[in-house]
Design goal:
alpha+beta, D-tyrosyl-trna(Tyr) Deacylase, Chain: A, BirA Bifunctional Protein, domain 2, Rossmann fold, 10-stranded mixed beta sheet, 6-stranded mixed beta sheet
């Protein structure tokens, strides 16, 4: 089943003619109107016929959740066949709609039920707030044994102690009740408070659509792919450009740090002894696939490929720490449907994964601090304020805390603000210690970007060894670093950050090095189009396009502003004569006359050290299609 929700000022319909599936209706059903209503356009699908009652129950739950969010008791149920290519039979669909309408009415909702099997005209006025347009897919899956790792089961039962650790070394024990955290004064640390509550409650289900989903669609960056599994996305040219630049910067920095880039398969043998054992030590749900030859799983990180390569290598202590790196296109995790949330939590993602193989625990701890600085520098260059935009969550075993308290404190001193510390009574997973750099979004949800871990098990599990100074064969410690986390999450966080800044009175924008168009040339009239066209060649190393459409000057400027273009250059007769262009600077809302060289220098200074790619769309705006209709 698919549902499109519109929170409306009003919705009205009028029956025009029957379809072959129409049944007789009373005159009063031939037209209807409801104000301040949640309109539910619903397509009942073929798969819904397998369990009509359960599908109906789940649909009602979704409708009630959205109705509570937008605070209305008025609901329009509108059969709408155009949301799906695979529709249920008419009699089944009628049964589904009957269940939904009657259950909602029994629950106290005022329901206007549009008749099934008729062509109708309708008028609707959408309220236009961030939650006024939502969509949902409902699927009842036949009972099937899910492959759940022992680590996932352990995580669900995990009992731990929570603290706030300050740079001074002060440790404040925490408790939580009804979502409110006690034990630390969070004044001045509002995001840390939200992050702490989110982590301690361990509620990952998403009730409200994150704001970045609307932004990624409006900017024509990313969208859902209805032809794939939920949690998979399509990238339009501008979104692909941003993603590729983030990937390139990440790879460049890790290679500079010493990561040796490799490539490995995305599919592995489920029955491979070391791999199967590792699956049960990693807290993630797998995609399991039966091939013609064997049972396999899709990787959820680059660990498998790198560990199997390291197993076959000859390594000396003199070469350590040894670093392997892969940017995985792609990694897969079978996240639960209620946890999926746009680019924040998805099922298929791009994960930069760099493992360091260290001879001793002391070497591993020193190396982790080097990698922490690398991650902070990378995120800063991506466009995040450090440490203002992020929060640290660190998890350690009680034994590690007992022996390495001073080492943990080094992170707090580097971070220069308090962070969340979780202490386990024993080692649940393959690591004894890990940290994450987390972003808290506009909805108060948190997502880990950077993560690194001290792995004490997998070298032995995969029989990875090095030769020490005495010629003995030993197993190393392994560090698992993803400096920026999943690339998709970086895009999510940058969009959410822009929205948060917008709510604070700033102009929403992307970092200039990531802006799909960095300069938009706008001629005052058609007479300046040729001049502007020739001008583009002077902007070497800058993404410049030209609005050569027949729109008015004001409309062209508004269009550029809606695209978040950082520099809008308006060119008329005067600009051609003076050899200066009138530039609207998005960041500080000012207009300034500049020469081409002045504008070029400004942009090159702002993007120094970041990779560059050409425009991903035609340079003439008139030649561009609309990707979202």
């Amino acid at each position: 089943m698919r549902i499109l929700f519109i929170h409306s000022d009003y919705m009205e319909y009028e029956v025009k003619e029957k379809t072959k599936d129409a049944q007789p209706i009373a005159d009063e059903q031939k037209q209807g109107r409801m104000e301040d209503a949640l309109v539910c356009f619903i397509s009942a699908e073929e798969m819904d016929e397998k369990n009509i009652s359960e599908t109906s129950r789940l649909a009602v739950k979704e409708i009630e959740d959205v109705a509570k969010t937008v605070k209305t008791k008025q609901i329009v149920v509108y059969p709408y066949a155009h949301l799906s290519p695979s529709l249920a039979r008419a009699e089944s669909a009628r049964e589904v709609f009957g269940h939904i309408v009657s259950t909602l009415r029994d629950s106290g909702y005022d329901v206007l039920a549009s008749p099934f099997g008729y062509y109708k005209s309708f008028k609707i006025s959408c309220k236009g707030h961030p939650l006024s347009e939502l969509s949902r897919e409902i699927e009842v899956v036949a009972a099937k044994k899910e492959e759940i790792s022992e680590a996932v089961k352990a995580e669900e039962k995990l009992v731990s102690e929570w603290f706030i650790l300050e740079p001074s070394g002060n440790l404040s024990p925490l408790t939580i009740e009804n979502g409110k955290v006690s034990g630390f004064n969070f004044k001045g640390y509002d995001n840390l408070r939200k992050f702490t509550a989110y982590e301690m409650e361990k509620i990952r289900e998403v009730k409200e659509e994150p704001v970045h989903i609307r932004l990624m669609k409006d900017l024509e960056l990313v969208d859902y792919e209805p032809g794939s599994d939920p949690g998979n996305f399509r990238y339009y040219p501008k979104g692909r450009l941003i993603k590729s630049l983030l990937e390139e910067l990440t790879t460049r920095r890790i290679v500079e740090y010493g990561g040796m880039e490799i490539e490995s398969p995305i599919m592995y043998d489920f029955e491979h002894p070391a791999l199967k054992n590792y699956l049960h030590r990693f807290p993630a749900r797998q995609y399991v696939i039966e091939t013609p030859n064997k049972k396999t799983f899709l990787r959820f990180s680059a660990c498998f490929g790198q560990f199997l390569i390291a197993h076959d290598m000859t390594i000396s202590y003199k070469q350590m720490p040894m670093r392997l790196y892969e940017l995985t296109h792609y990694s897969f995790r079978a996240e639960q449907r209620g946890e999926l949330a746009g680019l924040r939590r998805l099922r298929t993602f791009t994960m930069p994964d760099c493992h360091a193989f260290c001879a001793t625990l002391d070497q591993a701890k020193d190396e982790m601090l080097v990698r922490f600085d690398l991650a902070c520098s990378l995120l800063l260059d991506m466009g995040f304020a450090m440490p203002e935009d992020l929060e640290i969550g660190m998890r350690v075993t009680k034994e590690f805390w007992k022996t390495d308290k001073d080492y943990v404190l080094k992170f707090a001193k580097r971070w220069k603000k308090p962070f969340l510390l979780e202490i386990w009574d024993r080692q649940f997973f393959y690591y004894m210690m890990k940290y994450e750099l987390n972003f808290v979004d506009a909805g108060g949800k948190a997502a880990a970007l950077t993560t690194d871990q001290i792995d004490t098990e997998n070298a032995k599990r995969f029989d990875i060894a090095y030769v020490d100074a005495e010629g003995k064969r030993r197993h190393p410690f392994i560090l698992h670093l993803s400096p920026p986390g999943a690339i998709e999450r970086d895009i999510y966080a940058l969009l959410e950050k822009a929205y948060i800044e917008h709510k604070a009175g700033k102009v929403p924008s992307l970092p200039i090095w990531l802006s799909p168009t960095q300069v938009r040339l706008i001629p005052v009239s058609s007479e300046q189009v040729e001049y502007c066209d020739n001008l583009i060649a002077e902007f070497d190393g800058i993404r410049v396009d030209l609005d050569d459409t027949n729109d008015s000057l004001n409309k062209k400027i508004r269009k550029a502003e809606k695209e978040w273009i950082p520099y809008i250059a308006v060119i008329g007769k005067n600009e051609i004569q003076t050899k200066k262009i009138n530039v609207r600077i998005r960041k500080n809302k000012v207009q300034k006359d500049m020469t081409i060289d002045e504008l070029k220098k400004r942009i090159h200074d702002e993007t120094q050290g970041r990779p560059f790619r050409q425009l991903s769309l035609p340079k003439h705006v008139s030649l561009r299609p609309f990707f979202r209709g």
